[in-house]
Histidine--tRNA ligase
Amino acid sequence: MSLGAARQTARALCEGFTARGAEVVECAILQPAETLLDLYGEDIRARAYVTQDPARGEQMLRPDFTVPVVEMHMKEGAEPARYTYAGEVFRRQEDDPSRASEYLQVGYEVFDRENPEAADAEVFALFAETLSEVPLRAATGDIGILTAAVAGLETTEARRAALMRHIWRPRRFRQLLDRFSGKSPVPPERQALIDGQMAMHGAAPMVGLRSEDEIAARVAALREDASGPQLGRGQVEMLDALLSVSETCPFALEHLRDLAVDTPGLGVAVDRFERRIEALAAQGIDVETLDFEASYGRTSMEYYDGFVFGFYAEARPDLPPVATGGRYDALTARLGGGGSIPAVGGVIRPDLLLEVTA
């Protein structure tokens, strides 16, 4: 697929979003690495291109537009605001070299604190309409429901924080659940630290950036965590049941309502889901056939913390999603310098759109 054709499609998509009231914005290709590292930790290096600038320090070729758009809005944006953009993003693809490491992205972002569920429905409906002539399957989810369930667990704050931190890493999340519930043993190296079998004083010279005091504090934290009560079987079963929800929206709502009866805090998140279903229906979306997967979005960029969605070509399972999006309220708080605003948006890949319709 030619780059020229992809650019032409990107312009057409951007014009369509502009016609819906979005303001066109531009973002620098080189982004400060510090911001992205603060958000995602060193994990971002595995999927971004990093370079060193003698004047500006460490920089990254932008892995997406959302972070710079949020930074721009939190500094100078009016409320409410709708933005659109088009341009290249850069992602390393070490796990799958066949995938493009540079490609075009067209996005639509909404910053509006009036009615978050209505904004969710607006973005999804706009994407559904834009892609209506393309044979794609829509999937939706809600990270906020899972985070609410984790926040309500009867366990230590440290264990809740660890599970929250790894919600976007399903394998690690499962490992932690198994360890906290006693299903799997503590790793030998960790157990040795807890038991005090790894002495620091009189051992080999210290190597690395952590001091002895920092290591001792870490060992104390590990011991405190190990002494905490195990997660009850019922709590683990609740999380498993929640993560297995994969039905059309009305049936998913019914299932989640049942789970919320015995799960503190889950009811508020399920109420938001119900309001979103109503808002989607008001936008003309057939919610009776719209799929909802409770675990959907857990391997995406970590800034999504609520509603998530994607559009896939079922006839081309080898392709990434043609479009993805979701809510990222917490990101605006992280980058807002003390302020925050509910925000939701999504992106479309013109190259994949052309490939599906070819």
